[in-house]
Backbone:
């Protein structure tokens, strides 16, 4: 028999605020035993029903109202932020509007102060400045700076020049005392020494001797060594061991006449100087000459073009030949030569008897050169005329020359002609591959 449920009235539970989901009502009579069983089942079902107390009702109501409170809070914050931004933008606009007004007021105040400043203020400030300058000066210089009862503008100008000269002297003295020297050192000019060389028996001797001389020259200094055909390993090794700043160049021109070898090698160096715009004094120093250190000191005194005497030993080695300028101080007034075959030259100078400013090669506007053609030595002229044709491209006449040293009375370069017979073989690398035989052996004791 199927179990029947008796529907109880839910009015009592609804009055007390309880909600009990129960089955539908039915009007079937049952036995007392079944009635007792149905009552037990109803009690168990009542315990399992969901009970909503007043506290849970309040919580559920709070959860329902929470989204509304968040929405209200967001609206209030957004409205407040919009109000703040509007206030800031208005304050910025007002600040920009006030800026031109403040600027104009400051400008007007400055102009008024400049116009209305009394004269005694400026005179007192200048006197205070002069007083502070006098405190820094030494008593030896201040004694010579006294200007009293100046009546004319010429006297005022002379007084100002004298004062400026004393101030310059004081500045130089102060700079020297600061570093412990009595004279202010000026920067040296760059010396660019060009040396053409080629393989021969005395090449190592010449280059080594010249390198030892150049190592004694104060910097800045650049040694340009030019070889024919290719860079020899022997020359490259020697240059690395000198400790001198150098550039090893190569002349790759095919020559039919070896007498023009030095001309083309020097042209390679001139093109290198012009291309890199080296600023200094260019000097052609052959490797077989003998030089004094005084020569390199005089080179740094040259402004445009300098020249001096050169001593040469004649090929017969029986007499000495002097060639170069005759000077009155630094002014060239004539020339001296002992070779009759060269009297037709315009300038009687040896290749090692002159030097010039390198900017003449690459800055023609500075020296007012009439031609923009590159300055090079010519191989089309007669032997012995390369020097004069080259100098004619650098200067117009003797008025643009400087005799070094003043008076041109010292010989600072010697050309001695120490070459041996041409074609003399020399060992590769300037070292002996096999030991020499002892043609005088030591006598052994018997």
Residues:
């Amino acid at each position: 028999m199927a179990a029947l449920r008796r529907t109880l009235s839910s009015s009592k539970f609804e009055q007390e605020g309880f909600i009990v989901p129960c089955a539908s009502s039915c009007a079937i009579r049952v036995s007392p035993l079944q009635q007792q069983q149905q009552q037990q089942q109803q009690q168990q079902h009542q315990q399992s029903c969901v009970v909503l107390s007043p506290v849970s009702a309040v919580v559920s109501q709070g959860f329902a109202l929470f989204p509304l409170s968040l929405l209200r809070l967001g609206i209030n914050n957004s409205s407040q932020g919009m109000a703040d931004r509007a206030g800031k933008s208005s304050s910025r606009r007002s600040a920009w509007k006030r800026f031109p007004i403040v600027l104009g007021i400051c400008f007007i105040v400055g102009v008024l102060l400049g116009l209305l400043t009394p004269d005694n203020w400026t005179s007192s400030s200048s006197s205070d400045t002069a007083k502070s300058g006098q405190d820094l000066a030494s008593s030896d210089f201040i004694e010579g700076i006294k200007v009293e009862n100046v009546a004319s503008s010429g006297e005022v100008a002379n007084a100002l020049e004298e004062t400026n000269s004393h101030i310059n002297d004081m500045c130089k003295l102060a700079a020297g005392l600061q570093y412990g020297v009595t004279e202010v050192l000026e920067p040296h000019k760059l010396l660019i020494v060009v040396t053409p060389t080629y393989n021969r028996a005395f090449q190592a001797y010449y280059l080594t001797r010249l390198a030892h001389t150049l190592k004694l020259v104060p910097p800045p200094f650049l040694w340009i060594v030019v070889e024919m055909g290719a860079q020899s390993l022997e020359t490259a090794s020697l240059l690395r061991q000198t400790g001198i700043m150098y550039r090893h160049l190569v002349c790759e021109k095919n020559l039919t006449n070896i007498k023009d070898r030095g001309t083309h090698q020097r042209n390679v160096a001139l093109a290198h100087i012009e291309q890199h715009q080296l600023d200094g004094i260019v000097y052609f120093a052959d490797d077989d000459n003998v030089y004094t250190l005084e020569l390199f000191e005089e080179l740094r005194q040259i402004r445009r073009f300098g020249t001096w005497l050169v001593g040469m030993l004649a090929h017969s080695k029986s007499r000495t030949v002097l060639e170069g300028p005759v000077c009155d101080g630094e002014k060239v007034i004539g020339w001296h030569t002992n070779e009759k075959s060269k009297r037709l030259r315009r300038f009687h100078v040896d290749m090692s008897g002159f030097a010039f400013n390198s900017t003449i090669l690459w800055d023609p506007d500075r020296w007012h050169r009439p031609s923009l053609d590159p300055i090079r030595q010519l191989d089309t002229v007669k032997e012995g005329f390369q020097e004069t044709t080259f100098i004619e491209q650098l200067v117009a006449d003797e008025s643009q020359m400087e005799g070094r040293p003043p008076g041109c009375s010292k010989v600072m370069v010697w050309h001695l002609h120490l070459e041996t017979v041409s074609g003399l073989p020399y060992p590769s690398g300037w070292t002996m591959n096999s030991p020499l035989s002892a043609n005088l052996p030591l006598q052994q004791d018997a």
Remarks:
- Residues 129-178 form one domain.
- The first strand starts at residue 191 and ends at 196.
